[in-house]
Amino acid sequence: MVEIKTRGEIDAIRAAGQVVARALAAVRDHATARTRLAELDEVARSVLAAAGASSPFLGYQPSFAPVPFPAVICASLNDAALHGIPGRRRLAQGDLVSIDCGATLDGWVADAAISFTVGPPNAADDRLIGTARAALEAGIGAAVAGARIGDVSAAIGAVGRAGGYGINTDFGGHGVGRSMHESPSVPNEGRAGRGMVLSPGLVVAIEPWFMAGGSDKYQIDDDGWTIRTTDGSRAAHVEHTIAVTEDGPVVLTAA
Ligand code: MG
Ligand code: MG
């Protein structure tokens, strides 16, 4: 079932979204060469705690996962795209880092992700991250009242494919509200004009993730969580939680 949010509920999700934005900014500021991924998780935990928010990631265990997720951020490096567990590994200059974070505040959830490099990006990483961001913008731009889910999916996928990147729709965008993953699904590729009509009050996370090698295949690490490209190429992931409104899409996780 798809839940339509009131203006007040959207404001509550925006408040959670501001906590996520602050957590992601703090993590990025802290992500320099030699920093351990677990330290980045600690940084995000402090931002959530200071705001009185909890984490929808911590202890999360969807059907595909063998163990509950043990952190408040996903930290996915280089050929890892999604769901990386922040452990003792240290960042190195040139690493491509994707950080996904959520917050639950007053019972409402927001979810967002950023990708960046440690130090200046090389040309290939710069293009990959830039294309993921452009796809996110295209997806948000397509999320207008009266359009369909397929319009959002097609907009995201067109940007990724034009870049020559691999796209796998097993994981993608989703409704957001009192829980992190609600209906509808918002795949990163699809057919324009198909799917559910977008109504004002719909809140969704839009989250393109692209694989640089052009293959659509991924594999899952032995930890049961980390999603990695099978060809060893790098991946980037960016995400915002947005609301469809009568005045157009509104990003709720923007800083
Ligand atoms: Mg996320
Ligand atoms: Mg999400």
List keywords for this structure.
13 strands, alpha+beta, about 260 residues, Creatine Amidinohydrolase, three-stranded antiparallel beta sheet, five-stranded antiparallel beta sheet, 4 helices, binds magnesium ion, globular
Record the SSE blueprint:
Elements: H1 7-30, H2 37-50, E1 73-77, E2 80-82, E3 96-105, E4 108-117, H3 123-142, H4 149-162, E5 173-175, E6 182-186, E7 203-206, E8 209-211, E9 218-220, E10 227-229, E11 235-237, E12 240-245, E13 248-251
Helix pairs in contact: 1-2, 3-4
Bound molecules: magnesium ion (MG) (2 copies).
Gist?
This protein is of the alpha+beta class and 255 residues long.
What does this structure look like?
By secondary structure, the chain is α+β, with helices and mostly antiparallel strands. It is built from 4 helices and 13 strands. Helix 1 runs antiparallel to helix 2 and helix 3 runs antiparallel to helix 4. The radius of gyration is 17 Å and the shape is globular.
According to CATH, the homologous superfamily is: Creatinase/methionine aminopeptidase superfamily
What is the subunit organization of this protein?
single chain
Beta-strand proportion: 15-25%
> Taking Cα atoms only, what radius of gyration do you get, to the nearest Å?
17 Å
Number of strands: 13
Q: Per CATH, which architecture?
A: Alpha-Beta Complex
